[in-house]
Design goal:
Layout (H helix, E strand, L loop, with lengths): L3 H26 L1 H24 L14 H31 L8 H23 L13 H33 L1 H22 L7 H7 L10 E2 L5 E3 L4 H40 L7
Antiparallel strand pairs: 1-2
Helix pairs in contact: 1-3, 1-8, 2-8, 3-4, 3-8, 4-5, 4-8, 5-6
């Protein structure tokens, strides 16, 4: 059995590759939508200022960003996605080491894909279904902390319930067989995560939003109206929002898929070399 540090090093490498691929995809497809969202935000802000001036309300001073838009969209986003990939790659490697030799007849590459798939499901997809990714211009400053906390709660709960579902499946395996036990574990996960999703509030139901903006389903900007109820600026374009969420989802598929495939190949080679050096050892 190779040292766990070797697996983690390969997990970090696989995560860096996955993060780089995901960034290239997001830069090509999602970045133009982000720019459209920023342009919408600027236009809406100017319209709001015009309404405020007409009503005799002070518009205050403009805040200047520390980093330019180009730095944020290229260097900042690239470094952020790659570092996230590195962290997830290391996490996949740790889980892989824990499960190696404990999951029946699964080979090294199949196990790597299974662990990466579980990570995609628990860390991203399930939380995404409750709190989907949003481009700039969506989300109020008053709820940033609450929204961040709720998302972390959703991620942590999803991972814990995924572990519970796997434990239930393994416990029932001898009695029900592998297929039925897997279905039972999946059903437990769906029911429990469904309850959690129903209990946690939607963004539009947060206390700060209800107090300031009234009852709405989301924080997606609605049409801006003047005092007479005339629309002076449209609501956030639905096509931009749908496209951004789709490309965010696909970028995560690329990241986790690359981690599973690259790490599986590297882990397989590592185990084969270890077996060749120690012929008496049992190949996992």
């Amino acid at each position: 059995m190779p040292h766990p540090r070797s697996f983690i090093a390969f997990g970090v490498l696989a995560g860096a590759i996955g993060g780089l691929l995901a960034f290239v995809f997001a830069w090509i497809f999602a970045e133009p939508l982000i720019q459209q969202a920023i342009d919408y935000e600027s236009g809406r802000h100017e319209a709001q200022e015009a309404l405020d001036r007409a009503a005799g309300v002070s518009t205050g001073d403009h805040e200047h960003e520390i980093f330019s838009r180009a730095v944020q969209g290229n260097l900042g986003a690239g470094v952020g996605i790659v570092l996230f990939g590195v962290a997830m790659g290391a996490l996949v490697a740790v889980v892989y080491v824990v499960l190696l030799g404990r999951v029946g007849q699964l080979g090294p590459r199949s196990l790597a894909l299974l662990v990466a798939g579980g990570g995609f499901l628990g860390v991203f997809l399930v939380p995404f279904l409750k709190y989907p990714a949003n481009p700039p211009a969506i989300g109020h400053e008053e709820t940033i902390t609450v929204r961040g906390t709720l998302y972390l709660v959703m991620v942590a709960t999803s991972i814990v319930l995924l572990i519970v579902a796997v434990a239930v499946g393994r416990r029932l395996q001898a009695r029900l067989g592998t297929w039925n036990a897997s279905l039972a574990g999946g059903a437990v996960f769906v029911v429990l995560i469904g309850i959690v999703m129903a209990v946690l509030p939607s963004a539009g139901d947060l206390a700060a939003n209800v107090a300031i903006y009234g009852h709405h389903a989301t924080e997606t900007p609605l049409p801006l109206e003047d005092a007479e109820g005339t629309i002076v600026f449209p609501g956030f374009p639905a096509d931009v929002l749908a496209g951004f969420r789709l490309y965010s989802l696909l970028a995560q598929v690329i990241l986790w898929g690359a981690i599973g495939l690259v790490f599986g190949v590297l882990a397989d080679r590592l185990l084969r070399r270890s077996a060749e050096r120690s012929p008496s050892s049992v190949h996992a």
